Amino acid sequence: MKQDIFKKPKHMTSIGGQALIEGLMMIGPKNAAIAIRKPDGEIVVEKRPVPKKGRVSKLPIIRGFVGIFKQMVLGIKALMYSAEFVDLEDDKDKEPSKVDKFLDRILGDKLQDVLIYISVIFSIIFSVFLFMVLPNLVASILPVDKSTGVGTLIYNVVEGVVRVGIFIGYLALTSLMKDIRRVWQYHGAEHKTIHCYENEEELTVENVKKYSTRHPRCGTSFLFTIMVVSILVFSLVGQHGLWINILLRVVLIPLVAGISYEIIKISGRSQSKIARIINAPGLMFQAFTTREPDDSQIEVAIEAMKNVMVENREEDRW
């Protein structure tokens, strides 16, 4: 029987996750668990503490952007950890480069943390250029009177359409890569396992297989929501010169991300018709970022989930 994704589960958990290289990470209220399938078939699990929530975690809008940044750092650390298990025979005998030796001598044990934060910053800059700056450059060539409210709205709608087009193209191209398709399978295993847990069924491969690979609280849905919210927010600030437009978009990213987080948080736990409409496009886009997993991948997801579950389910309610 096909699962109704919009049907309210018995228990709406706050546990989320992220697909990795030959594994995935589940993030619970107290710790994160990274489960990786080694080349020899063994599943290794490592637990890591989740960054403590400060006062900002209670502030609407602000908590969204801060939480996203923290999760990006946690996610890149997990991704780098999973990469250590990939069998790279060609790299085993390579000598460290002069640059590697220099950085290791200067930064020592802090080298990995510095590289992780650089990666996060670079990822943000790349995303801003690809999904914010480039669509604005394309929309700027339109012969639209941007001095009127209607003109500004048309300009931002076109910019949003271009942004969505780039997003779809990016997902479609990455899905052609074999390694990425395996990551999408682990992403599907993550969602199916969370569904099973939320419906309070025993975490077995057979039970998990019954559920959908799509979930309303997915990061793909969040990204799509950001694109829609950005059209509305950028329309309110009007249109100016090219560089002013780009600067405003960069400055307003925390606001757009924060509003999008609140929308996903509300719609993710609601079964109303409005929530279904809001969730529908994001669920549709998950066709690009999830695939049906095999049994071995589901086993990895189950191991990760078991290591973040708490005895008192009230502690992880969404």
UniProtKB/TrEMBL annotation:
Keywords: Membrane, Transmembrane, Transmembrane helix
Record-annotated membrane-spanning stretches: 114-133, 153-173, 218-237, 243-264
Pfam families given in the database record: DUF1385
Top-level taxonomic group: Bacteria
Name by which UniProt lists this protein: DUF1385 domain-containing protein
